[in-house]
Amino acid sequence: MAISERSFPALRKHSPRLRWLFSATLLAAVATGAGSAHARRIASYDGTWNVTFATTSGNCSASNTFPFAVSGSRVSSAGGGKVTGGIRRNGRVAVAVRVGLSHASGFGRLAGNYGAGRWSGVISGDRCSGSWQATRS
Questions:
Q1: C-beta contacts of 72-78 below 8 A and 24+ residues apart
Q2: Which pLDDT tens digit goes with each residue over 1-21?
Q3: pTM to 2 decimals?
Q4: Beta bridge partners of 74
Q5: How many CB atoms lie within 10 A of CB 1?
Q6: How many whole angstroms separate alpha carbon 33 and alpha carbon 16?
Q7: Cα 69 vs. chain centroid, distance in angstroms?
Q8: CB-based burial of residue 37 (10 Å sphere; 0-12 exposed, 13-18 middle, 19+ buried)?
Q9: Residues 6 or more apart whose Cβ sits within 8 Å of residue 43
Q10: How far is CA 127 from the centre of its chain?
Q11: What pLDDT was estimated at residue 16?
């Protein structure tokens, strides 16, 4: 459905300034609505995620679980260590984790209340890598 001044016959009787004001208001309303929808899509991942890391290569612990927090497009720590990262509206996530001298980075995807991906890093001096799985609590 196209909205124009023909949709509102009363506008035809008024000055071009009023028609311009109507058009600008309509454009602002449409732009604001699109921005809100974008924010709602990103916010759909908000919450605490319990992430289990499984080592498939290297001399590191077989598995560890840590809580991460998602708020908007940001990923941060919900427990120990420093976690920085981001999430796109399609669920694609990338993070970096640092605890003392150990550090790792990972990427993957969240969908609904679950997620999965790959990670790699240096843990206690050993280069390791593996996979991760996440569930939203």
A1: 72/39, 72/42, 72/43, 72/46, 73/42, 78/48, 78/49
A2: 444 445 445 444 545 553 444
A3: 0.68
A4: 71, 86
A5: 3
A6: 26
A7: 11
A8: exposed
A9: 72
A10: 28
A11: 52
